[in-house]
Write a structure and sequence with these properties.
Largest sheet: 9 strands, parallel
Strand content: 25-35%
Helix content: 10-25%
Distance between the termini: 68 Å
Structural class: alpha+beta
CATH class of one domain: Mainly Beta
Shape: globular
């Protein structure tokens, strides 16, 4: 039985096909792409090898003559719970004929008005869908896209977390198919039954964008054209960050910086949690804890440490408080039945800005700018699902003409957008860490995975979580190192720090009621491991920065599942605990308690060498590998060049005079990008772009653009020793 109106189809420039109930509208996160040809409502459409057949109101997709997806009637599953007219039927009593215009209500108690079911190959694997936890492949699971503040332990049975990415990448019949459901209401993706994919929307239209290719990178590239790419990040954001809920002002923060310095662990930023505010009023400082915020941040900057501040959307109801008076006085907050809507969050009774209102975004931007002028370097957007303490916001709360149920998943997106635009207007590269967002949020912000826990389960689930975020076009993310809730054991912190070397965001954070989690509070063995991890991370910064420069152009993630580099090796689709860092470094983190030893798979199609050089490893089989304190097992593809800072270098505000190229046996090439790391002068040509070729350790450097002159020389590290290249006279 069809549960949607007839579809219309169109081909879009760039290899995408759109299948929609209404071609005249789309969500605000989509970049409009030019149409190729005329739309159709019945018949066949072929584009970039993807053939769509619309017949009798149903859609089927083919690629190179093979059927990929065939729309079928939605079938009730007797093992699940449905509600019809408030009567729960767990048996076979409900049939397709019972499905009315009111939709179906599943065991989550939510009625989905639109449902579409597809038949596909039973061996298909499903990826992406954002930061839901679980294995790399989503096969056998069901997920709900509805931004949810859930402080309980994040296990694989959680259907919703803080972010919503209604995008799935499907591996089927040797091809990769991407599908984006452009609907900001609550939506459901169901892969529980083999050979079936069900998509459902609580409200709104079923509007699908599809693209297929043998190379999954090609599919991601096309969707990044549609949904946007990350801007160039500030380089300092790749350094170590430290925060904690419960710091008592300047004295505590200075002690943190001193603790890191005495432990010989580099630090690039500290983040202020809600304690810094005056009664949790956003864009204020508590005068006791921070009597002179500008001086404090200037002092931190002299230590090479930037300060970021948390900002929640809830604005305290407090006449006389400027932010409240201006937002409410100008009608820039949510309303219900024509009156200002009030709920409760950290400040107590609070109002919610309508960030989708351009006037609200502009006013919010003035508050952002005032903090930038004090010396704040970035922002940490929290509680922006939006969260509330007195029950969820009613569905008809109005945000500048948009109901809460339509706006809910977009709320964090719009908050980040307003903040990013204000930072860019001030000449700052945006660095905004968000808890909640929607598809396309990578244009404005980076993310963290929310309130995780200090357990090995949280650690084990993290690589797949970050890989799937990257496959959702959200490449810069991380989790609280050591875990937010609970007490982190020394061994857990050691192994978490080793993994964090590869995570885009390396931030240690813990809750107020947990033991202190800064590494210098731990035993010498743990401090040494954390130090090793930190120093390796800073050596890798130029390599990581290169891939974020690339992500801004192509949309490709930094952390890549094995199949993204070797799609012909299907075994890589089953491996959740290994990944590539960029396209050269294979990481096999040790994620379990006990010995720092594990079995690692080396994909077919290449040979590999240990990161610190050593015996060649052929691809296509498993090997037992060993890590060291603070250093997860890392391997490099043959012929690769890894760009590194000199040993011990940690000044991310300046470029060193010397850069290192670690060249591995084989032939290969890469590009290295360098700019000043924090401004927009690159837009005026103030950057260098090098092409580096490697012939079994013989390295040549060619400048594709030479507008900065960042380095004087390069040290080439090979298995047989090192040598120097003059970079000045080129």
């Amino acid at each position: 039985m069809n549960t949607h109106r007839p579809f219309y189809a169109e081909a879009l420039q760039g290899g995408l096909v759109r299948l929609a109930e209404d071609l005249s509208s789309s969500s605000p996160v989509v970049n409009p792409l030019p149409r190729e040809g005329s739309p159709l409502s019945e018949g066949e459409l072929e584009h970039q090898g993807l053939r769509l057949v619309l017949k009798d109101g149903k859609a089927s997709f083919y690629y190179r003559g093979e059927a990929l997806l065939t729309e079928k009637d939605f079938a009730f599953d007797p093992l699940r719970t449905y509600v019809k007219d408030k009567i729960i039927d767990r048996e076979h009593g409900a049939t397709s004929s019972d499905l009315t215009a009111g939709g179906i209500t599943l065991d989550d108690g939510v009625s989905y008005q639109k449902v579409i079911a597809f038949a596909l190959d039973k061996e298909s694997e499903f990826f992406a869908l954002g930061d839901h936890v679980g294995p790399l492949s989503r096969r056998g699971y069901e997920f709900v896209n509805y931004n949810t503040d859930d402080p309980s332990d994040h296990t694989e049975n959680k259907k919703s977390l803080y972010k919503s990415f209604p995008f799935v990448l499907i591996s089927l019949k040797g091809h990769y198919l991407g599908i984006y459901l452009d609907n900001t209401y609550r939506t459901l993706f169901d892969f529980m039954e083999e050979g079936t994919m069900n998509l459902a929307a609580k409200k709104g239209n079923l509007d699908l964008y599809l693209s297929v290719d043998d190379d999954p990178k090609a599919v991601l590239y096309r969707f990044s054209q549609l949904l946007g790419r990350i801007p160039l990040i500030p380089r300092w954001a790749l350094g170590l960050e430290q925060t904690r809920w419960g710091y008592d002002g300047e004295k505590d923060l200075k002690a943190v910086v001193d603790g890191y310095k005495k432990a010989d662990i580099p630090l690039s930023a500290v983040l202020l949690d809600i304690d810094y505010m005056d009664g949790y009023r956003v864009f204020t400082f508590d005068k006791r804890r921070f009597p002179d915020p500008a001086r404090f941040m200037a002092d931190m900057k002299k230590e090479g440490v930037r300060v970021l501040t948390i900002v929640d959307p809830g604005v305290k109801v407090d006449p006389g408080y400027r932010v409240y008076d201006e937002l409410v006085g100008q009608g820039l907050v949510a309303t219900l039945d024509g009156k200002t809507y009030v709920n409760e969050v950290w400040p107590g009774e609070s109002v919610y800005p309508s960030f989708n209102d351009p006037s609200c975004a502009e006013t919010w931007g003035k508050y952002v700018d005032s903090f930038l002028k004090l010396g704040v370097s970035g922002f940490w957007n929290d509680m922006n699902e939006p969260a509330s303490f007195r029950g969820e916001l009613p569905p008809d709360v109005d945000f500048h003409g948009v109901s809460h149920e339509e706006m809910h998943n977009l709320y964090g997106y719009y908050m980040g957008k307003a903040t990013a635009e204000a930072m860019k207007k001030a000449g700052k590269r945006p660095f905004i860490i968000t808890r909640a967002t929607f598809m396309g949020g990578q244009r404005y912000m980076v993310g963290w995975t929310g309130d995780n826990h200090s357990t090995f389960d949280s650690l084990r689930l993290l690589p797949a979580q970050l890989m799937n975020l990257g496959l959702s076009l959200f490449p810069f993310a991380g989790a609280d190192v050591g875990g937010f809730g609970g007490d982190c054991t020394p061994e857990l912190l050691r192994k978490w720090a080793a993994l964090a070397v590869a995570c885009p965001l390396f931030r240690n954070h813990s809750a107020i009621n947990s033991k202190r989690q800064e590494p210098y509070f731990y035993d010498e063995r743990t401090k040494e491991a954390y130090r090793n991890a930190a120093k390796l991370r800073y050596r890798l910064v130029p390599y990581l920065y290169d891939y974020f420069f690339g992500a801004a152009i192509t949309g490709m993630p930094l952390l890549r599942p094995l199949f993204l580099e070797f799609p012909s090796d299907r075994l890589g689709e089953k491996i959740s605990d290994e990944f590539f860092i960029g396209n050269a470094i294979l990481a096999a983190p040790v994620l379990n308690p006990g010995p720092d030893v594990r079995s690692a798979y080396f994909p077919k199609g290449a040979s590999y060498y240990p990161f610190a050089f050593g015996k060649k490893i052929e691809g296509g089989h498993f090997e037992l590998v060993e890590g060291h304190p603070g250093e997860m097992p890392l391997f490099v593809r043959e012929g690769s060049v890894v760009v590194l800072y000199p040993e011990g270098y940690s000044d991310l505000d300046h470029n060193p005079e010397e850069i290192h190229f670690r060249a591995f046996p084989g032939q290969g090439k890469c590009r290295h990008y360098v700019d000043d790391g924090d401004s927009y002068l690159f837009e005026e040509g103030r950057y260098d772009l090098m092409e580096i070729t490697n012939d079994n350790g013989k390295v040549e450097v060619h400048y594709l653009h030479h507008g900065l002159g960042a380095y004087k020389k390069a040290i080439v590290e090979t298995m047989d020793g090192s040598y120097e290249i003059d970079l000045q006279n080129r």
